[in-house]
Design goal:
about 450 residues; 5-stranded parallel beta sheet; binds fe (ii) ion; Hypothetical protein af1432; 19 helices; about 55% helix; Rossmann fold; alpha/beta; two-stranded antiparallel ribbon; globular
């Protein structure tokens, strides 16, 4: 039961400081929870001994180092006949008695939904909740950021109704500046209520990007990679190619390559991506990188350098697109039918040109990658969509175009199992010339 007079108190048992950090921020922002955190079940029990009556929910990692944390806590509660709901997160077998188990601990939406359910917070409660005009964010979160996606304020000490602008939107600030505010005694900074979810999403993406692959399951790695790609797009659109975005792009590309290598079969990879609920953009990029690199590996002119190049192109070509509805546009007709604002429409129209511009500024980009990216929707200048590809495009462009169309067809039918026959027939109809047909035949042998 949620007490009327105070926020629901949640005990979080998690030893990864980054996960702990974005769990706290998300749970407090989305559900208004107050959270106490402990690094192990052993320490959590110490708290429960005196405070159990005040705790409404426990969120615990299945296993923390050698400790079976979820199991220990659930057994502890059962023995004392305490009925606090327990949400178990992280890979492993579900412990009987848990309220819910979320094996991919980075699926925050699922965590938030389950926490709401456990606390009997309804969608209506959330909608009715009064959110202050200026939403407080603990100042510690600003230490992981170099800039904020929205303006940031502090509350005037003399007059709490006054909010002083501190950091402008997307303007760099330093850790020293944040520390100076801490020295002034400031514990919270504020963002406007309308911006709070964007802000929280951005901090979460930053923290997820920093997670070590070693600490994560294969599924969690995919989720982290998906969020990291979103972060990269946001940064490219706001600050362009800088040392920071180059580093982030390289990190993202490495993850993409690792996933290609560790998934020998396309069907398996696809199944993984779908069950993982990764974004359409991420699935599109990952499958395209997979298919493209497999074709190049098996084509007569293929070489490790060319493989590297097709991966690079697959990674960059749609990087200017900010969300799934934008990424699903594949023709002039799609664009006309889409319900976009004028700015988004221009972005989608120009995305090939924009991505090509990033690539020309990217250090050591493979030769000619920018041109293939610029022309990936069939227009020479990278603006708009054309259904016609010149017959004089380079061999690499042919591979890319086929791989992209293949990916589009797979994802169009993503709810159904792969129908290789229909798929290849559709491709052959789309690209009747022999240069394309050769590549399509190769696809047959390498991806199934
Ligand atoms: Fe694409
Ligand atoms: Fe595209």
């Amino acid at each position: 039961m949620v007490r009327e007079d105070s926020l629901a108190l949640t005990l979080l048992v998690e030893n990864n400081p980054k996960i702990e950090s974005f769990y706290m921020l998300n749970l407090s922002t989305w559900l208004g929870l107050e959270i106490i955190s402990k690094k192990k079940a052993e320490f959590a029990i110490g708290l429960l001994q005196s405070e159990a009556a005040n705790i409404d929910l426990i969120i615990v990692r299945s296993k923390i180092e050698k400790e079976d944390s979820a199991k220990i806590l659930i057994e502890y509660l059962a023995k004392r006949k305490l009925t606090i709901p327990v949400i178990e997160v992280g890979p492993g077998k579900e412990v009987p008695g848990a309220f819910a188990h979320i094996p991919n601990s980075l699926l925050l939406k699922l965590l938030i939904q389950n926490a709401a359910k456990a606390l009997k917070i309804t969608a209506k409660d959330m909608a009715d909740k009064v959110v202050p005009e200026y939403f407080p964010i603990p100042i510690l979160y600003f230490k992981v950021l170099r800039r904020s996606v929205c303006p940031v304020y502090s509350q005037d000490i003399e007059d709490p109704a006054v909010f002083i602008p501190r950091f402008a939107k997307l303007k760099d600030f330093t850790e020293a500046e944040v520390n100076a505010l801490v020295q002034e005694g400031i514990t919270h900074l504020y963002v406007e209520k309308l911006h709070r979810l964007d802000f929280v999403n951005n901090v979460t993406n930053e923290l997820m990007t920093e997670l070590e692959a070693l600490d994560l399951s294969a599924d969690e790695q995919l989720t982290a990679a998906d969020r990291s790609l979103e972060l990269l797009t946001q940064k490219l659109l706001s600050i362009g190619i800088t040392e920071e975005t180059v580093k982030l792009a390289k990190k993202n590309m490495d993850t993409l390559k690792r996933t290609v290598k560790t998934n020998p079969k396309l069907a398996k990879l696809l199944e993984r991506l779908l069950s993982n609920k990764t974004s359409y953009i991420y699935r599109h990029t990952q499958i395209l990188a997979y298919v493209g690199s497999h074709i190049v590996r098996n084509i007569d002119w293929g070489s490790p350098d060319q493989e590297e190049k097709i991966m690079f192109i697959a990674f960059f070509h749609d990087l200017a697109l900010a969300d799934d509805t934008q990424a699903r546009v594949a023709s002039a007709l799609d664009l006309r039918k889409a319900n976009f604002s004028p700015e988004v429409k221009i972005l989608v129209e120009k995305h090939a040109q924009l991505a090509a511009e990033y690539v020309t500024k990217f250090p050591h980009a493979p030769m000619g990658a920018d041109q293939i990216i610029r022309q990936h929707h069939g227009t020479l200048n990278g603006i708009g969509f054309s259904e016609h590809w010149g017959n004089n495009v380079s061999p690499m462009s042919v591979v890319f175009i086929v791989a992209e169309e293949f990916t589009r067809i797979i994802l169009k039918n993503e709810e159904r199992p792969l129908q290789r026959h229909d798929l290849l027939r559709e491709l052959k109809e789309t690209f009747p010339t022999s240069r394309f047909q050769k590549v399509i035949e190769l696809l047959e042998s390498v991806t199934f």
